[in-house]
Amino acid sequence: MEELVSCLSDLRAFVRQSVSLDERRTDAFTVPRSSSGQRGRPKITVTRQQLEFLVTQGYTIKRMAQLLGCSASFLYKRTKALGLPTRNSMSRSLTDEELEQHIRRLHGLYPRSGNEMMRALLRAEGLLVSRQRVRVMLTNIDPAAAARRWSAAVARRTYYVPYPNSLWHMDGNMRLIRWGLVIHGAIDGYSRLITYLNCNTDNRAATVLTQFLKATCVYGLPSRVRSDHGGENTQVALFMNVVHGVEHRSHITGESVHNQRIERLWRDVFLHVLHSFYNEFYSLEDNGTLDPANDVHKLSLHLVYLPEIQSRLSRFREAWNHHRLRTENNRTPSQLWTDGMLTNMGVNSTSINNVFGDDPFTEHNLEGLLAQHGITNFPAEMVDQFPAVNVHPPSVELSQEQQEEVLIAIEDIADLKFKYQMCCNEISHRLSLTV
Q1: First-last CA distance in the chain
Q2: Is the entire prediction scored with pTM above 0.85?
Q3: Domain 167-278+305-372 maps to which CATH number in 3.40.800.20, 3.20.20.140, 3.30.420.10, 3.40.50.10490?
Q4: CB–CB of 206/380 below 8 Å?
Q5: What is the pLDDT of residues 252-294, one digit of tens each?
Q6: Phi and psi of 227, rounded to 5°?
Q7: For the chain, which residues make up each domain, given as ranges?
Q8: Computed from CA positions of residues 312, 317, 318, 320, in that sequence, does the dihedral angle turn out positive or negative?
Q9: What does UniProt give as the signal peptide span (predicted)?
Q10: Best exposed site among 114, 157, 181, 368 by fewest CB in 10 Å?
């Protein structure tokens, strides 16, 4: 009798597994289930870390259930048992006066931001505010700008790639190159997730590769990358061809104007971040306090403005990745990337396998791939031999000690223009002492 019960139990487990595989055949991620061999449904295993991650990404319980392949009622019980909120609660203690102060400050930094971007900027600072409150406040603060946004909708062609990380679009923005500053960025074509966005004082291939590799350590290695023909992209092209093979066409080149996702992103980056610096630098030139050909002026500009530009770019990137897209059912780029990865987890795709499969960055994998191409060591420093937009750094140099002295002397100055002028004076004084 005991042997019969054991056999029936094994058969039941086998049938349940077979039915699960046949009827629920899917490439999507589902939470693990374990059977004890006793009566009742299999135990569902959902960790606290998984739930916390999805809550911070802005998912509702219903959407979490769809992603994890379980019921919403189970997740309600599970989150309650763990003491987790079922959604991010609104900052209700924030008064209208306090909210207006925050929005006015952010509006001064990002004057062209609309309702969703302003909500995302507030969220980046830990403030979750309803769309209605932000819309009313922005309209009251700057009604003319709100009217301009309402009339600025543009019809565009449909863009399609199958999965997250199928194609990253990368490029360099040269709007500030007159003053020796270049913005490098990349965006995932599927989700519009910005993978990196940085301000640099050079346009070298090694600099671009370093930023690209740091982004792949966070989001995984993309299947393909698209860029223009600039020489600054050669090391990324070499790396992609080494890892994926030349036949994979892992690096696609073309005209910048056809690199749709990143060109559209540059419009927003200039609109929200670079525009104010662009005007301010020309204003300094008009006042005679900035000469782009003067190395002391250029070095001072970099020391004062580069950290501020990078800070605003980083805040913009964080806000962008969490702002809701009307054309994507109000999901954020971060949610689109996560959804695409989890719902296609079982798909045999390079972009998915690079996240859930073997790590292409392990020492064994990378060394083996390099050896196949006759490369014993990947060139960390390589002379840029291909045509690229040149950025000429200041010819004057300060020692590390001198630079720290200058930064300490100007660190308490809030106004950037005055801070720049004082920086010029401090650098000129120290250079005169060394002559």
Answers
A1: 100
A2: no
A3: 3.30.420.10
A4: yes
A5: 998 877 788 999 999 999 999 999 999 999 999 999 999 999 9
A6: -150, 180
A7: 1-45, 96-150, 167-278+305-372, 400-434
A8: positive
A9: none
A10: 157
